[in-house]
Design brief:
This protein is α/β, with parallel strands linked by helices and 113 residues long. It has a single domain, classed as STAS domain (Transcription Regulator spoIIAA). Helix content is 41%, strand content 33%. The protein contains 4 helices and 5 strands. The chain has a 5-stranded mixed β-sheet. The longest helix has 16 residues. The radius of gyration is 13 Å and the shape is globular.
Amino acid sequence: MSVKLNTREVGGVTVVDVEGRITLGEGSSALRDLIKDLVSKGQIKVLLNLSEVNYIDSSGIGELVSGFTNVANAGGAMKLLGLTKRVKDLLQITKLYTVFDVHEEEKHALASF
């Protein structure tokens, strides 16, 4: 299964529910395209809900960083929500866990914007 992306607006924040695998190819390019589209529309408060992501590879990590940079360069913020143990461990190993603003609960994440 590749990645499924669903967006919803909550109080001026665009929440992207990500499900499946963020890997080289379709998964990472779909995420990249979605974030570029959001930024081009001026939606620069982005919360990525990764609670249903069962696998992410180095290409997927690269897309998270790229998306974070694109949103930040537009004057916005991209935050992460609900990391699975596998994704959290990978972000800690790559020292990226401290780069992202990571939240466990959606209401706290939304309030942080």
